[in-house]
């Protein structure tokens, strides 16, 4: 099993931090601490805690900052880190970014994917691992507790059939919950996922990888969910989210 982090995004709403850093390296530790814990630190710490020894990181915007820190991160978390360049990180959305990792996904028996802007506890990864074993090929971490609004990546899921719909563009009242940006992908799903992602970004390069999940569902592929319970987490898009992320991160 390998960990995978999507860390190619620019995060322009987090300037001035992201003038020189990718979003995944924005500090969520105490403000003013030059060595503060970053979003990427938290994710790598989670991966190490569940016993992973290898991680691949998709980089793009300000990728040199990740390259500079790779050796230190490897030593800190006991991980072998492979960096994969996304050459269209500032032009296209993350359906293409995840497709860039297709060979990594295909080469391993399973992958835990985490968005590079999600602050969450290791209980999320543990929930996904515990949900394995019944033939699932892709399992999404789902927050079925949070009150939803327009911006969230909403999911409609059927207990027997799995995900029926995943999009931001739905009435929050109709959703089962929110996909939090962490997925367990079995290697057996690699080829079908890669093809669905390619179809998605070729249709519109501004689409999300979650639109690739929807493409799979439309083809009859079962995508499962695992509810994470009442867990504190946040997707960091702006400075308000960052303040929440710092509050949450200090509790782990």
TrEMBL record:
CDD domains assigned to the protein according to its UniProt record, in alphabetical order: PC_cytidylyltransferase
UniProt protein name: Nucleotide sugar-1-phosphate transferase
Pfam families named in the record: NTP_transferase
InterPro entries according to UniProt: GlmU-like, NTP_transferase_dom, Nucleotide-diphossugar_trans
Gene Ontology molecular function, alphabetical: nucleotidyltransferase activity
Keywords: Nucleotidyltransferase, Transferase
């Amino acid at each position: 099993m390998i960990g995978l982090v999507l860390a190619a995004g620019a995060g322009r709403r987090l300037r001035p931090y992201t003038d020189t850093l990718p979003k995944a390296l924005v500090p969520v530790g105490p403000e003013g601490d030059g060595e503060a814990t970053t979003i990427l630190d938290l994710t790598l710490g989670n991966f190490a805690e569940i016993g992973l020894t290898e991680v691949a990181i998709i980089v793009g915007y300000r990728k040199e900052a990740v390259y500079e820190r790779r050796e230190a991160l490897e030593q800190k978390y006991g991980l072998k880190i492979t960096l994969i360049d996304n050459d269209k990180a500032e032009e296209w959305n993350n359906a293409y970014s995840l497709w860039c990792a297709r060979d990594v996904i295909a080469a391993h028996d399973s992958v835990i994917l985490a968005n590079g802007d999600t602050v969450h506890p290791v209980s999320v990864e543990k929930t996904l691992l515990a949900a394995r074993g019944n033939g699932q090929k892709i399992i999404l971490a789902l927050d079925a507790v949070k009150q939803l609004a327009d911006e969230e990546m909403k999911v409609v899921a059927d207990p027997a059939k799995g995900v029926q719909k995943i999009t931001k563009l739905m009435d929050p009242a109709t959703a089962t919950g929110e996909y939090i940006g962490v997925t367990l992908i079995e290697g057996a799903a690699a080829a079908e996922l890669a093809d669905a992602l390619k179809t998605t970004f070729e249709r519109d390069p501004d689409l999300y990888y979650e639109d690739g999940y929807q493409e799979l569902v439309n083809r009859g592929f079962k995508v499962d969910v695992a509810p994470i319970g009442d867990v504190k987490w946040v997707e960091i898009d702006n400075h308000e989210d960052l303040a929440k992320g710092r509050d949450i991160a200090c509790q782990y």
